[in-house]
């Protein structure tokens, strides 16, 4: 048991540190012709419509569409003296997180969810003006207790990529339990897969696809009553061999970090940026514009 607890503690530290790969009130982001002034509610109604018999755009068309800013958060808590300088990139103080969310709300941003992003990229469906996506990795309880509640205050929803080994654990790191995950899903947030225990996808061999992907997806579907269709690569690391494996298992899209998208499968290499614990509201906004403001592969 002592050996297992040591291994799990090491896993939690690795998951926090490893999800990396390698004050403005106005937005200056260029607007794509398909990102309109449609309200978020209207767009969500469009998403609810059946998507049968629609042809998915080719890779070149998807790559040419304006990228949507997608933010990635991990722990939301105040820094401790023992937190390293590098760890503080992934640990965002509570008031800093609240300031990020308030700035985006005050600046007129609308949160979107993966179905909306997918329909925009694959079919050209319109998005609300100034879309942004909030994503959270690794199942930390503070994402539920602080993150989701703060988003809700401003009418925002988020995407929670769950690492199933940690569900219900409460030690040095407090993780969400099944009831928390179910509540997030029931309130209209999206639950996605983040593997069983954060193993690097580049290192998968045959049985890993069952252990890391199939079983966790089934568990999350059982908890939420919803099919798992979106995946976030641990550490943001991916390879071309992983994409057909994810497709075979029913995923519609997958998320990396700030690296270049795959020219053949951009839906399975959707870019995000880590929202650093060091960033002010102004730095966050500038980073969004710099990373997503112009068309780039």
Key words describing this protein structure:
alpha/beta; two-stranded parallel ribbon; six-stranded parallel beta sheet; TIM Barrel; 10 helices; 38% helix; 297 residues; single chain
Explain what this protein looks like in three dimensions.
By secondary structure, the chain is of the alpha/beta class. The chain has one domain: Alpha-Beta Barrel (TIM Barrel). 38% of the residues lie in helices and 13% in strands. The protein is built from 10 helices and 12 strands. The chain has helices at 2-18, 40-47, 59-64, 94-106, 114-123, 141-153, 178-186, 208-224, 242-248, 281-292; strands at 35-38, 70-73, 75-76, 91-92, 110-111, 127-128, 131-137, 159-162, 190-193, 230-232, 253-255, 273-274. Strands 2, 5, 7, 8, 9 and 12 form a 6-stranded parallel β-sheet that branches. It has a two-stranded parallel sheet with strand order 1-6. The protein has a two-stranded parallel sheet with strand order 3-4. It is globular, with a radius of gyration of 18 Å. The N and C termini lie far apart (47 Å). Mean pLDDT is 87; it is low at 1-15, 21-33 and 37-48.
Explain briefly what this protein structure is:
With 297 residues, this protein is α/β, with parallel strands linked by helices. It contains 10 helices and 12 strands.
CATH-defined fold name: TIM Barrel
- Compute the separation of the termini in Å: 47 Å
**Which shape, going by the Cα principal axes?**
globular
Main pleated-sheet profile: 6 strands, parallel
H-E order? HEHHEEEHEHEEHEHEHEHEEH
Count of extended strands: 12
Strand content: 5-15%
Which CATH architecture would you pick? Alpha-Beta Barrel
The proportion of residues forming helix, as a percent range, comes to 25-40%
Q: Which oligomeric form is depicted? A: single chain
Total of helices: 10
CATH top level is Alpha Beta
Class computed from helices, strands and strand pairing = alpha/beta
Mean of pLDDT: 87
Which segments are poorly predicted (pLDDT under 50) over 5 or more consecutive residues? 1-15, 21-33, 37-48
Rg calc: 18 Å
Kindly report the name of the CATH homologous superfamily.
Glycoside hydrolase/deacetylase
Query: How many domains would you count in the coordinates?
Result: 1
């Amino acid at each position: 048991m002592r050996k297992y607890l040591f291994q799990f503690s090491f896993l939690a530290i690795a998951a926090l540190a490893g999800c990396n790969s390698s004050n403005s009130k106005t937005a200056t982001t260029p607007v794509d012709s398909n990102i309109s002034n449609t309200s978020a509610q209207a767009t969500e109604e469009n998403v609810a419509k059946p998507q049968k018999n629609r042809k998915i755009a080719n890779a070149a068309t998807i790559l040419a569409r304006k990228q949507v800013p997608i933010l990635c958060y991990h722990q939301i808590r105040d820094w401790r003296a023992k937190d390293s300088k590098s760890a503080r990139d992934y640990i965002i103080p509570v008031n800093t997180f609240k300031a990020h969310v308030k700035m985006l709300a005050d600046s007129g941003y609308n949160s979107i969810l993966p179905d909306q992003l997918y329909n925009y990229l694959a079919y050209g469906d319109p998005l609300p003006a100034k879309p942004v996506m909030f994503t959270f990795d690794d199942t930390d309880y503070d994402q539920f207790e602080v993150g989701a509640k703060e988003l809700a205050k401003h009418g925002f929803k988020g995407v929670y990529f769950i690492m199933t080994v940690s569900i219900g654990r409460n030690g040095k790191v407090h993780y969400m339990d099944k009831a928390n995950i179910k509540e997030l899903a029931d309130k209209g947030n999206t639950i996605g897969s983040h593997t069983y225990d954060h193993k690097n996808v580049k290192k998968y061999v045959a049985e890993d696809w069952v252990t890391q992907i199939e079983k966790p997806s089934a568990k999350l579907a059982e908890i939420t009553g919803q099919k798992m269709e979106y995946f976030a690569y641990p550490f943001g690391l991916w390879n071309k061999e992983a994409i057909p494996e994810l497709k075979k298992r029913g995923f519609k899209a997958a998320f990396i970090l700030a690296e270049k998208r795959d020219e053949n499968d951009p839906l399975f290499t959707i870019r995000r940026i880590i929202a650093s614990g060091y960033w002010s509201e102004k730095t966050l906004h500038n980073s969004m514009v710099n990373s997503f403001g112009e068309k780039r592969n």
